[in-house]
Known about the structure:
By secondary structure, the first copy, chain A, is mainly α. Chain A contains six helices and no strands. At the A-B interface, helix 1, helix 2, helix 3, helix 4 and helix 5 of A face helix 1, helix 2, helix 3, helix 4 and helix 5 of B.
Amino acid sequence: MSDQLEQLRQRLARFASERDWDQFHSPKNLSMALIAEAAELVEHFQWLSEQESKNLPTDKQQEVAMELADILIFLIRIADKLQVDLTETAWEKIKINESRYPVDKVRGSAKRASEY
Amino acid sequence: MSDQLEQLRQRLARFASERDWDQFHSPKNLSMALIAEAAELVEHFQWLSEQESKNLPTDKQQEVAMELADILIFLIRIADKLQVDLTETAWEKIKINESRYPVDKVRGSAKRASEY
Amino acid sequence: MSDQLEQLRQRLARFASERDWDQFHSPKNLSMALIAEAAELVEHFQWLSEQESKNLPTDKQQEVAMELADILIFLIRIADKLQVDLTETAWEKIKINESRYPVDKVRGSAKRASEY
Amino acid sequence: MSDQLEQLRQRLARFASERDWDQFHSPKNLSMALIAEAAELVEHFQWLSEQESKNLPTDKQQEVAMELADILIFLIRIADKLQVDLTETAWEKIKINESRYPVDKVRGSAKRASEY
């Protein structure tokens, strides 16, 4: 796996065990924590236009960066508990996406694969 | 930033531009796509017990791995559009979490920081 | 439509227009606000066991009730903007669920319709 | 409580017990099912502009209506299990919102209460 992600994985595993938090870290619970963080990200953008979301003021940019960090943290934790290699699986999924969304078929269109 | 994540970032940027999809990839929209994937993960666990979530049958394990990949993919995309270094920001957040949740104060308890 | 829901619909429409908030209340934005509230509900339960979630302390019960109210509020708003009759459509969906999940086929099992 | 919502509550309670599904319907699990439905709604809008979300083609409109029904269904179920009167609590929350967002202070602005 990726060096940086592996270091984060270890640090987060230690963070949880130091606090005796593994008891709470079932994949079920971690999926809930992850979506809660994803929602904090959504909240930052819900009343902004798409254009505004591309031009965030500095303080907002910093808050949003922290939400992305939270999501990555829980993603690494749940992948750890499920023994999933995140980057390897991402490359697999990109291959699948390539065949689901061939350039000549989907260029410029945002429909779902099943809607073509 | 992390080598593997940087390679994924570039591949995903190319994937989107080949398909002329950058027009849809505002941070606002990407935050929506990300939470939609986080929810597909939650769906796999909603009727399972915590124990069952730790012992997934092989086919379910593979589906869940793909959902984690989807989440990582959109996380990398939105970080790219917002010019956020994911791993660097994660390390910053871990430092913040260390002071919010000191071991001696929170050991064995899952309350939120504000509830201590 | 339901009397109570209709009264809430009107009150919420007035609430928004008094504050000149209709400009922010596109269905797209409202769907984001709704999921953000759904996530606040999830957050209350993420570290609790299923059993604990059935026996909430009084203060937690009150907070959770408020989250349910928030979800209903945004649900009524988005249904209003999309001109959807919530209760009528719910009855339609129950009929569909009856044929997707016949009692004799699904009794005691929590698989998705497509997994039978 | 509201007549229509009460009838739906009873119908949904019967739907679940006929299928011996109460065992799965802890508030924790129902909060997960609810957010999964909220995400299916978000998915319909993620690549659409706000303007497009106000002008849905007929088939899309029908799909979105069904998602709203799903959300209401799980909202009624979880309120039932938690013994929360949905409409009564909504009216309470509107009162709270009135004092958090006084017209003269917030008119035309979409900041969060804490950001004023």
